[in-house]
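**Protein of interest**
===
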Amino acid sequence: MRNATDRFPPLSLKAVGIGLLLIPLNAIWQMMGLRWDIAHMSMISLLYNTVTLLFVLTAVNRLSQKVAPRLALSPAELLTIYVMLCLSTAIGGHMCVQILIPIIGYVSAFATPENDWQSLFWHYIPSWTSVTDKRALTEFFGGGSTFYRYFEAWITPLVWWGLFLVALFSVMLSINFIFRKQWTENEKLSYPLIQLPLAMANPRSGFFRSRAMWIGFGIAAGIDLLNGLNYLFPQVPRLSGIRAYDIADFFTTRPWNAINWLPVGIYPFAVGLAFFMPLELSFSCWFFYLYWQLLRVLGSALGFAPQFPYAAEQSFGAYIGIGLVAVWSARRYLMQVVRTIFSRRAATTDSREPISYRAAVVWLLLSLAFLVGFCYKMGMSLWVIATFFALFFALATGITRMRAELGSPVHDQHYAGPDRMMYSMFGAKRLGASNMTGLAYLYFFNRAYDCLLMPHHLEGLKIAERARIDSQNSGRKFAIAIIVAIGVGIVAAIWAYLHVSYQDGVYTAWAGRETFERLGRRLTQPAGADTAVIGAVSVGTLVAVLLAFLRGRWMWFPFHAAGYAVTSTFTMNFFWFSLLVSFVLKWVITKHGGIGGFRRAAPFFLGLVLGEFVVTTFWGTVAIVFGLETYITINL
């Protein structure tokens, strides 16, 4: 990639302008896809809509180089647009804006004498955090109207929650800016998920001239095109058996019936992504997935509680452990950062960083102060706020560090965020109704972590390094482009969601119902501290730290903490078998062909990813444009 940009400036306002223009278009496509249940692009680590957009932009750019060279974009500019779109897609994702907006209007719209929400927690909800206009909410949830008639009803809560998102994302960006050099240059993490966009954007990679790539592309695209045509026209033959088949039906006797779901199927894109994971990491993923299943069988045989082995809780603890190990491993580097911040030569010491360490720390502290003040004004106690955000950012850091090294296709961590853990650790009485109401409003970014913005940003910084956007001027421009993209992405996602919802009705109304029904249960049926959950979180943290220690001591040690953390949650059920298949293929290829065999095979596996992503986007676009229910390629 180093010499691929010689004929072009590394970054320009033209590229940033194209990215900003595409963000609202991408947002409206994303929200319109909710109607057809195709909005899962943010539930997997590599976003299929942004990869497809990069594919289209690359094709158009190749044509521009021949017809109008002055309009052509450099690889660095193409990748900048790609990163901007990734960040905006994550913001508009299934576990961010799509849940936030229904939550801030749900109580006023659906409080009834039967659920008794008015007496339970209505008085704990500040007026500036929620929408109360009944007519505006009726037409929002019901559809058949337009958002612009009710703009005033939404403006105050949207401004405050928009600022909250800015502060939340700012802390994530600051952490990444501080750790970038350690994870990218010192530890040299592999960043498997950036291989495809780098290969697509680099004209010297020979990616689009590779026969192996087009064979992989054809296989994945052909499967999904054929099955999509069969969905619309049943007379067209279908390739069955490619998607998950649940073999848990064969386990009917105790204790084996504790395995209540064991899907076996192949997703070509997951096979392709896993090929770029280090072998010990892909091994750890499928091994620990089966490990959790066997623990359930063991727990059933021994008569343990149905929740055993508390896998999600152990996974939460494991991510905390990974985050702690990451900080401990970087302790000398962090001391250098501290010395740089207070040094008179700080401006020259960190001149190659996108923003200076001093600016990153100040930005982080100001953003944290806003988050604390926001939650305190909502009625939450300072100790609850501090505990919640300490756990959240430790979890986010652990997931980000894991993904940079592992490149897992998923990291959802459903229903196992800090809000759930704090309720289990402290109980309802100690938390109190006001704190639990505040935590309910923070549920929108804690229900799951599949569209977490922080890993996309870190991968963007690595892409910037590989695309030669790491000089002082270009690096700062890239950082500004990212920050602007996040701001525009927040506005675009909120606008697109409200625009579509007022037309069609709210497709994610379940988010508000789930949030406040859970809160109602906790207030009417309060529980005390759950020692089993506390123990499981502690075990997860200790196991992750132990695995990291053993791998640091013996490089041949095959079990990795990242595999232990990522495999216990919902979405991995779909992909574990694909990771197993990819592991076997990579092991055979590298054993018999060495590094040369890996390099020759790599385009084929990248083609599997690209082929499935392009056709997935195609069927989604067909559904939106023609109003048809189409084949859902990536159905989670």
User: Anything to note?
Assistant: The beta strands are 245-246, 263-264.
